Amino acid sequence: GPLYDSSAKLLEKMRALPGLTDVSSDLLIKSPELNVVIRRDLAASLGLTAGQIEEALLNAYATPQISTIYGADNQYQVLVELPPAYQEHPEQLSLLNVRAASGALIPLKTVAELKESTGPLSINHVGQLPAVTISFNLLPGTSLGEAVEAIKSASADTLPQSVQASFQGTAQAFEKAIRGMGLLLLLAIFVIYIVLGILYEDFIHPITILTALPFAGVGALATLWGFGAEVSLYAFVGIIMLVGLVKKNGIMMVDFAIAAREKEGKSARAAIHEACLIRFRPIMMTTMAALMGALPIAFGYGAGGEARQPLGLAVVGGLLFSQLLTLYVTPVFYVVLEHWQERRRAAKQAAAI
Q: What SS3 class is residue 82?
């Protein structure tokens, strides 16, 4: 059928895909089959129904139980079938006779056509539907994400509309996990913005604090690309960790600058300049502590360290890159946004007068 034909074609396409190895299928179409095609019009003219022909085949080959013999201390099932000598060759099926309603014996070959073919050894299912499972492994240097995309493209070009493809096992888990990671990252940033907005009772200061995140993201992705690491589930976890680690630099500077402006009445430029000088040491201490803690993961130490390595690379690369720029970029954003707020307040006061 379409399932078996298209799965065989997809199997050949997957074997030709770069990065995949050990591609195999659980479809083994090697079992000999004998199909009995009933000539229904001829059977009806002879007084036979399809049910009678099927019942004759059932009694001959399916060993149905037709009775039970009850003894004094036991009971015995009575099974009926043809002798084994008449079950060895397909040609012997034509010797079978079917009794019509009139009582006449009609040879099976008169009302049915026998066709020999091959079929699957077993019919596997996923859920309620017949299915063929194609398994594969990855060559070194090939990410699961790349393999999933390549297989999706191959299946879209190969499978008809009546056949659906879905992933199972590790590939299915990866697909489900990776589908929500982008949304999870955006949600994490949004939650941080809301919490900072509540903390400072302001909509602008949280933006200043979050300005370091793009640089951290660029640093993380550049490090992963430079080391040839895949953007895996571990890498996404590392990037989400990076969001929490990097924003504390902005909080340490902006928090000090806000207090200096409110208590000492300093200008925005002077306040953030003093914040950078005084908070430089704690910023460097916390960043270096987090960076050094992630180094063993980035080097891939320990059992299964290669899988976790993208997490360490993302954290170390993102921290290094953002640290080099945060001390310069965040103060600039702070001053620009503070001046913008001051102009907005002045415009409101002028409108009120």
A: coil
Residue type, 241: M
Strands (E), the chain: 20-25, 31-38, 65-70, 75-79, 97-99, 105-107, 112-119, 125-126, 129-130, 134-138
Distances (CA, A) of 318 to 181, 187, 240, 284: 18, 19, 11, 14
Lowest mean pLDDT among 125-134, 136-145, 209-218, 256-265: 136-145
Spatial CA neighbour of 111 closest among 54, 48, 177, 186 = 48
Whole-number Å distance between alpha carbons of 166 and 169: 10
User: Rounded to whole angstroms, how far apart are CA atoms 125 and 57?
Assistant: 27
Nearest alpha-carbon partner for 20 in 115, 123, 151: 151
The one-letter code for the residue type at 175 is E
Residue 332's CB: how many other CB atoms inside 10 A? 12
- For the whole prediction, is pTM greater than 0.90? no
Residue 148: pLDDT band with limits 50, 70, 90: confident
Q: Two tokens at 36?
A: 């009995």
Residues with Cβ < 8 Å from 32, sequence gap 6 or more? Answer: 116, 117, 118
Mean pLDDT of the chain: 85
Q: Which residue has the tokens 């690379």?
A: 313
DSSP state of 56: H
Residue whose structure tokens are 């890159």: 321
| Bridge partners (DSSP) listed for residue 97 | 107
